[in-house]
Design goal:
By secondary structure, the protein is mainly alpha-helical. The longest helix has 36 residues.
Length: 280
C-alpha cells in the first residue's frame, strides 16, 4: 500500500549514501541508486495532493446538496468539496492574473511588497509543474499547451456554476476538464523526465539517476486519479518498462529501447502530438 511504501522509504533514509552528479550532491540507496527524496516527495504529491484533488473530493459533487449552507458554515457541501479539490492543485490566489508562466513556476511577489505571502502568493508543487510544462511548450506545442489556463479556468468556471446553482451536468463537465487536464499535466512531467533520462544516457551523464527518479515518481502518481484517461493495463506496462530502480551503466543502451516504448505508450494513451512529445 502507499502507506507501507512511504514508511519503508522513510526508514531507509538514514542509510542513504552521497554521490555527486557533477553539479549537485545527491543521496541514494547504495544497493540500486534509488534517490528516495524524489520517490518520497513526488510520491506524496501523487498519493496525497493529486489523489485528494481528483478522486476524493470531486466525486462528492454528484450527490452534494448545493441548495443550503452546511450547518455553521457559509458554504454549501458542493462549494466546500470543490474548494477542497482546488486547494490541492496548489496555486496562489491570483495565479490566473499573472502575465506569464514564468511567474507561476514558483512563488511570486505579485504585490511587490518584498515578501511572499504564504496565504495568497505561494504556488505549491502541482501549480508550478503545470507552468513549467507550459513554458516548455511556448510557441511549439499544437495542443495541450496551456495546463495552467485549462486547469484554473475549469476550476473557476465550475465554481461560478456552483455559486449560481447551475445545472449539475454543466458542473460535471468542468470537473472532467479539471481532472483530465491535471492528469495530462502529470503525464507531461513523466515525458519530460523520460526525455531527460534518454538525453543523459546519450551524453553518458551519471545524473540519469536523478532524472530517472523524477520520471518514475511522477509515473507512480498517475494511478491515483479515479477519472484517469490511461488504462490500468497500459499504466502497468509503462511502470514495468521503467523498472523499480535506475538502470546500471552497463544497461543504458538497452534501456533506451524501453524509453522509446514508454514514450510511445504515453503518447498513444493521451493522443499527444509529436511537437508536445519533443518540447516536454
Amino acid at each position: 500500500t502507499p502507506d507501507a511504501q512511504m514508511k519503508t522509504w522513510f526508514s531507509e533514509v538514514p542509510s542513504l549514501v552521497a554521490y555527486s552528479d557533477g553539479s549537485s550532491t545527491r543521496y541514494v540507496r547504495s544497493a540500486d541508486s534509488l534517490e528516495l527524496n524524489q520517490m518520497i516527495g513526488k510520491g506524496l504529491l501523487g498519493v496525497v495532493a493529486y489523489y485528494q484533488g481528483t478522486s476524493v473530493y470531486m466525486p462528492k459533487i454528484d450527490t452534494d446538496d448545493n441548495s443550503v449552507a452546511e450547518t455553521g458554515d457559509p458554504y454549501t457541501a458542493m462549494e466546500h468539496h470543490w474548494d477542497e479539490s482546488f486547494g490541492y492543485f496548489g496555486c496562489a490566489r491570483d495565479y490566473n492574473d499573472y502575465t506569464d508562466d514564468s511567474a507561476r513556476k514558483s512563488s511570486y511577489d505579485s504585490n511587490s511588497d518584498g515578501s511572499i505571502d504564504y496565504l495568497s502568493e505561494y504556488n505549491f508543487a502541482w501549480a508550478t509543474y503545470a507552468a513549467k510544462r507550459d513554458i516548455d511548450c511556448a510557441g511549439t506545442c499544437t495542443s495541450d499547451n496551456d495546463f495552467t489556463g485549462d486547469i484554473f479556468g475549469a476550476y473557476l468556471a465550475g465554481r461560478t456554476l456552483i455559486h449560481n446553482e447551475g445545472a449539475l451536468t454543466a458542473i460535471q463537465l468542468e470537473r472532467l476538464k479539471v481532472v483530465n487536464a491535471w492528469e495530462k499535466m502529470v503525464a507531461s512531467n513523466v515525458i519530460h523526465y523520460a526525455n531527460a533520462v534518454s538525453d543523459k544516457i546519450t551524453a553518458g551523464n551519471v545524473s540519469i539517476i536523478h532524472a530517472w527518479a523524477e520520471m518514475r515518481a511522477f509515473a507512480m502518481a498517475l494511478q491515483y486519479n479515479s477519472y484517469k484517461i490511461i488504462s490500468d493495463s497500459v499504466l502497468s506496462e509503462v511502470i514495468t518498462l521503467m523498472g523499480n530502480a535506475p538502470p546500471a551503466a552497463s544497461d543504458w543502451t538497452a534501456y533506451q529501447t524501453s524509453l522509446t516504448q514508454i514514450l510511445d505508450k504515453l503518447q498513444t494513451a493521451y493522443s499527444f502530438d509529436d511537437a508536445n512529445m519533443s518540447a516536454w
